[in-house]
């Protein structure tokens, strides 16, 4: 039914009701009888006590000692320090000056110095300070609902939502008062809306519990102005107006700008980061809201753990809005991106599984595989190495060839094209999703503030004599001349990076040498093992029959071990090189370390895979005239092709990386460290219970600025595995999906339970990582084109069926791909010593060359040039077609949804109108304070179905401001 806009009825004192800004949650609000059995190393529930029989739920801020000793002023930040025995007086004076400046700025401090190793300063920001900085920083804050209601009633009373979620204008005729809707929904619009509704019904089981975490709607907002305070809904308890995340963010803003030096001789002796860097403070952090353990009283942290970080929610969507409320926009945006990426993996997984099962279906029915496995063909192959390796039968490679057909078939081309389009769609849809998030979180007009110099930068240049005025701040800052100082450092830094990359290449060459020698060694097994039926002989025979597979798997495992070791080395060296470059701001530092670590890890992970995909078996030569490197023959692909080896290498490195790094390092290692700490701890239970919340948070691991960097890097490398080599491994999306389901909960658990509460930083996008993802998606198009053309058998099979096959089938294809070699042309030193197959006069090898009876012998045949031309033509066509299609998709899909653009413009217009009309009423002497408490329900506030991210918002009672579950929500 179409719902016409009408104001909500108000009775009694509802119009004076204030919106609740503090989050409370339904359910138990105190300690139950199990609480004492659910304690951890940090004590039970922060020493709190609660009465589970209370009828009135307690506010979350009552569940933990988050206040000064007076119980009224909230702790917004904690500064911790230890005694500096090297320079105690210098540190004390610096802290004293810094804290005096904080007090001058309006902050209130309270000390906890009870003679322990660590001392604490509790920081509280009064409402006047928060209000002043909200005005300075132009924070967008919610406007009074009654103002928006009155304006919408005047301007949008004829607008309504139809049965299909469209906003239409109702015009009534003067004769029969019959309503007509314009425009009329088309068949396509009806079909699209029905599809959306069907998908939403299918997704219902995967939604989190909305009775505990109700849907959050977006309200009208505008930049805060203390001179226009009447525009904003300020509750009676003014400390509840600004959320905890905003409070800590403002306090951090103040901390970063206060000086700690008495004299002005050191211009850059300011900021909490510089004090942390100099060791004057040991930590600075906001407090967690409560305890997360089972049996603890309800609080925001516990609810996030129970309904997000807990493993029982691994198949549920994430409450992104509540993550934002607790951790801030930057961390919430990462989880929103990771969740969106994981969701986009579902269709890729379905298609990949379909391609895999298709390969399984044709594995044994393929004509070429049957010919290769038929022992009656009696094809004798040339030795795989000189002198020591014997002749062998082509049918010995039967299992290898069958396995190769699972991944090397016609569906491979389709999957490569699909994944190229999938990568583009993922990036384009993410930009739209990001635009929606920016609008909902008031980040559309967010501009990063001017960054101060890094403390490390200032420390290194403390005695520098060259200064230059900052054009933004007007402050004289140390300046490093580009050509005299920066260029030589950058040149040396990136030269070292090239050397580090060369180490990864050298490691690959070492693995290649291992493969060659290992394969040669396994070929000698029949000479040293008797043909009896002992277990040793049976095992040796099995290894001999699968010599290539054993060599490939062991080489891949060795390569994985080398990759993990090199990653540790690369991580330390990349930070050392970036520190050496002495970059001014944190953004410059982050971008530089991102480029270095990504480039080094990209080379480290993908070097061996690129070798197998594009170089192995391409420049081998022929029997009697093999090309050598360092005196040894190059590796060559077996009869089944190199694609199966590429698949094995990719699977071991990708899955092994995820198991070792994601599961072992991120899950097992922290638990082992915690277990060791528990065993080594000498604290009694009473001592643990006596600790204050800031002491308990202090012993948690610090939430460093690089925490998200490694999470993004891990996922971006995974994206590279998925897209660059998707033609070789259609199961990659499945393993990525399973890994990401685990990864979301591991990261959520880490931020909720193992780290101090991070600063609620603002960020409007994922930064440089989008450009990296875009670059990978472009590389993937080229890579997959060459994999299909050079590594797979798709092009030779296509040429054979269309040009050489008498019946346009693959019958005779194996013989077509095999060239002849006269064994008498072997050099005496290269002839096989093992002649258990008898005297062989003619052997075969995989290549397109003339037989020895044609002139010129062993030269490239006509078929070779046909296949080469087809391969090059395929690369050109594939790349251009896919690039054109992906570019067309990027052009057709706007970065910002059209209806969202309209909504943004409409809101800007409405907000401006509200301000103008309210200012006019103020100028006319109307009492605006009477508008203070009224607010609207979501039903009446929502004049557009796209007023929030979701069309179907959770309905709340207009009289209480609560959800159906009785839970209050805040924005």
Automatic annotation (TrEMBL):
<dbReference type="GO" id="GO:0046983">
    <property type="term" value="F:protein dimerization activity"/>
</dbReference>
<dbReference type="Pfam" id="PF16178">
    <property type="entry name" value="Anoct_dimer"/>
</dbReference>
<feature type="compositionally biased region" description="Polar residues">
    <location>
        <begin position="958"/>
        <end position="971"/>
    </location>
</feature>
<dbReference type="GO" id="GO:0005254">
    <property type="term" value="F:chloride channel activity"/>
</dbReference>
<protein>
    <recommendedName>
        <fullName>Anoctamin</fullName>
    </recommendedName>
</protein>
<keyword id="KW-0472">Membrane</keyword>
<keyword id="KW-1003">Cell membrane</keyword>
<comment type="similarity">
    <text>Belongs to the anoctamin family.</text>
</comment>
<feature type="transmembrane region" description="Helical">
    <location>
        <begin position="489"/>
        <end position="513"/>
    </location>
</feature>
<dbReference type="InterPro" id="IPR049452">
    <property type="entry name" value="Anoctamin_TM"/>
</dbReference>
<keyword id="KW-0325">Glycoprotein</keyword>
<feature type="transmembrane region" description="Helical">
    <location>
        <begin position="411"/>
        <end position="430"/>
    </location>
</feature>
<feature type="transmembrane region" description="Helical">
    <location>
        <begin position="868"/>
        <end position="893"/>
    </location>
</feature>
<feature type="domain" description="Anoctamin dimerisation">
    <location>
        <begin position="67"/>
        <end position="320"/>
    </location>
</feature>
<dbReference type="InterPro" id="IPR007632">
    <property type="entry name" value="Anoctamin"/>
</dbReference>
<feature type="region of interest" description="Disordered">
    <location>
        <begin position="1"/>
        <end position="58"/>
    </location>
</feature>
<feature type="transmembrane region" description="Helical">
    <location>
        <begin position="556"/>
        <end position="577"/>
    </location>
</feature>
<dbReference type="GO" id="GO:0005886">
    <property type="term" value="C:plasma membrane"/>
</dbReference>
<keyword id="KW-1133">Transmembrane helix</keyword>
<dbReference type="Pfam" id="PF04547">
    <property type="entry name" value="Anoctamin"/>
</dbReference>
<feature type="transmembrane region" description="Helical">
    <location>
        <begin position="331"/>
        <end position="360"/>
    </location>
</feature>
<dbReference type="InterPro" id="IPR032394">
    <property type="entry name" value="Anoct_dimer"/>
</dbReference>
<keyword id="KW-0812">Transmembrane</keyword>
<feature type="region of interest" description="Disordered">
    <location>
        <begin position="947"/>
        <end position="971"/>
    </location>
</feature>
<feature type="transmembrane region" description="Helical">
    <location>
        <begin position="716"/>
        <end position="738"/>
    </location>
</feature>
<feature type="domain" description="Anoctamin transmembrane">
    <location>
        <begin position="323"/>
        <end position="907"/>
    </location>
</feature>
<feature type="transmembrane region" description="Helical">
    <location>
        <begin position="597"/>
        <end position="615"/>
    </location>
</feature>
<feature type="transmembrane region" description="Helical">
    <location>
        <begin position="768"/>
        <end position="790"/>
    </location>
</feature>
